[in-house]
Amino acid sequence: MAGHELPNSQSKVDDKELEQQFLAKIAEEIKIEPKDWMPEGYRKTLIRQIAQHAHSEIIGMQPEGNWITRAPTLERKIGLLAKVQDECGHGMYLYSAAETLGIGREELLDRLHDGQMKYSNIFNYPTLTWADIGAIGWLVDGAAIVNQISLCRTSYGPYARAMVRICKEESFHQRQGYAMMVTLAKGTASQISMAQDALNRWWWPSLMMFGPHDSESSHSSQSMAWKVKRQSNDELRQRFIDITVPQADHLQLTIPDPKLKWNEARGHYDFGAIDWDEFWAAVNGPGLCGDKRMKTRVNAHENGQWVRQAAQTYARKHSGSHRAA
Ligand code: BYC
Known about the structure:
The chain is mostly helical. Helix content is 67%, strand content 2%. It is built from 13 helices and 2 strands. A hairpin with a 4-residue loop joins strand 1 (261-263) and strand 2. The longest helix has 29 residues, at 157-185. The radius of gyration is 22 Å and the shape is globular. The N and C termini lie far apart (46 Å). The structure holds benzoyl coenzyme A.
């Protein structure tokens, strides 16, 4: 044993003490920062959740990027281009937040590319019409905001701070998407039917974005205890439904759920059963667009290798010339 190492029993006592200090900080709403002691499980949970979130942002560029060249007006094209670039930026903030936990970006991307890490179910659905771009902004970004507003209070400092900025940009995205839906819903019969069709296809997958029911959610209880998550999957899903139904009413579109009904006693909308087989197929299965998304991502990564190398070489030379000066 190296001279500076503590005997096992001593280090266990120290770990217990450190864990007590960590839990006291969590109880007092003090943010945990990268150099603070943290349980290994807390670190792993954050790496999994933050990386999954980052991967969702960059994979999420694909279904929307698909429509940049076909946006119906210059204004819509500029808006969509800016939105897709924002999603890339969100991915970058989140990879940086994950890196503060002692894991490299390359490794995180390797784990995405070899299928060890997930990304959101929602991005394996195809974008078939222009109305899908409106529906994604309205529903997908809308669901993301509900989840991410809650995460602004997550216990890990770098993640919470990234969320504050991301939420500001997401709320612009949500408005942009809703504005498109308003235009379509006030348009010709075929525009109205395109908007309705997009709502029909994106409604249920958007509800699934919040993850399995609380009773099936494997990580929730520990993540709630550590205040990584501040509200449960079902609470956030219900909040999203309550906010979104009046927006659909305003558009005079019909949410594809015959069981959707205001429940006066609960003060919430009741809604129908979610098809969890569809959710798991979208998450795990090669069906839908899963294969295509991953091929596009891996190709982009490989084709961008020379750009990363050039940037690194430039940075090395640049810092060398600074030292020499
Ligand atoms: N999709 O124990 P649970 C965006 C997995 S992007 C796929 O409840 P947790 C945007 C889960 O990973 C927004 N998998 O998990 C970008 C776990 O499997 P593993 C993305 C899911 O982590 C571009 C298993 O199911 N937002 O806004 O406690 C354009 C059990 O679940 C999903 C985020 O990532 C899913 N939807 O809670 C437009 C938010 N849900 O890992 C828009 C940050 C669950 O054990 N993440 N699984 O193999 C979170 O808040 C939480 O991770 C979740 C899930 C609420 C999503």
